[in-house]
Structures are given as C-alpha cells and as structure tokens.
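Researcher: Next sequence.
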Amino acid sequence: MVEEVAAVDAYAARVSAVVLEIEPDGLVLDRTVFYPRGGGQPGDTGFIRWDGGELVVTDTVRRNGRPVHVYADDPPSVGSEVEAEIDWERRYLLMRTHTALHSLSAIIWRDFDAKVTGGNMEPGAARMDFELEGISIEFGQQVEDKLNEELAVDHPVEILFLPRDEALADPDLIRTKVNLLPDFIDPIRIVHIVGLDKQADGGTHVASTSEVGTVRVVKTESKGKANKRIRIELT
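Model: Next structure:
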C-alpha cells in the first residue's frame, strides 16, 4: 500500500521514497506527497530526484487505487531511493482555490438551499455548478460579497476521517446532487471548515480560510434548467 502524505498533511512538499513499480509513462512510489487528480482538482507536478538523476513529473493520476507519477524522461530503476518534491507554488495555489470552492458551496447551500451539480479547478481559478432555477449578475455580486466576508473570518480547516456509515448518515456531508463516493471508501475523509462547512472530500486545502485571500466572481452562466454556473478567480 502506498502512503499518501497529502491526505493528512497538505503542507508536506517533499518526501523520501522508494520506487515500487515502473509503468510505460509513470512510476509508483512507496510513499508520496503528490496528489493524484480527482474530484475536480488537478494532479500535482514536480520532480523526482535520485543519485545522479532527476525526473520531471508532468501529472499525477490514480490507477488501480495507487498514485502514478507521470513522466516524459528516463526513470530510475525499481528499488531506487528517491526524493519526491511537488511544485509547491502551484500546489499551494490549488489548495487556496479548493478551499474557496468549498466555502462557495457552503454559502450556496446555506443561503439558497442548492446542491452542487459539477465543478472543476485550475490554479487560481475555478467553476462550480449548482441546482439553481435562476442566476444573474446581481446574484454573482451578492455571492462574492458573502464569500469574501466568510473567508476573512479566519475559519480553521480541519481534516477528519469518519466511518462510512456515520458519514453517510449526515446528509450535509454529501453536497453533490449525486453521491460520487465509491462503495469501497471507508473511512471517508471529511474537510471541515469550522463554523462554515463540512464535506466529504479527498483534495488538499489550506489550514484557514484567511489563507485564501479575496475572491472575485468573474462570471455567472445558465447551463440549462436548474443548472447554473459560477466562475471565480483568486485575486
């Protein structure tokens, strides 16, 4: 089993590891700080270094339940001792973006009783779709004001692990219109923005909403009946 450090410590930027397996376009380590893309969050990029060599990691994906570090260069051999280091600046921006999205969904859930129907992010920018009947530019400004007000409160962000039955018994923990959690996940990882939000989620986040900074709602769109999109950017 691979030790996935990012699941418990999003601020870990590097780790020593051993190469377990080489695939045609990627390698598997016994432990890693790289986050494999999923849940709308891109996979980490960075470097794997060993005595006499360096590999550029262009993406991280999950295959057969394990993180695979995608590369385009010549890899080290199986059994090599390496250091895996993420592109920290990019990761941290993704952490801030992801926490902003959770805060956004919390506000829409709390104030407008709308579930999430989809979402995606890149470093510093993201979009989220909601089960809303209508949306307007004025609505976007209202949401932006509420969002920045909550981010400035400095809500702590905690990571919890709950037994599956306990987590699924709480309807507030699943904010998507469709439950996307595979049956084999147990316990379920929870991201708790204290005083604002609590959601099942596997991604990386900052330790406090104040680290996000301010956010702009740059566009609101209708994507069909009861499916409205909000696009945000970190400033």
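Model: The two ends are 39 Å apart (CA to CA). Residues 88-112 form the longest helix (25 residues).
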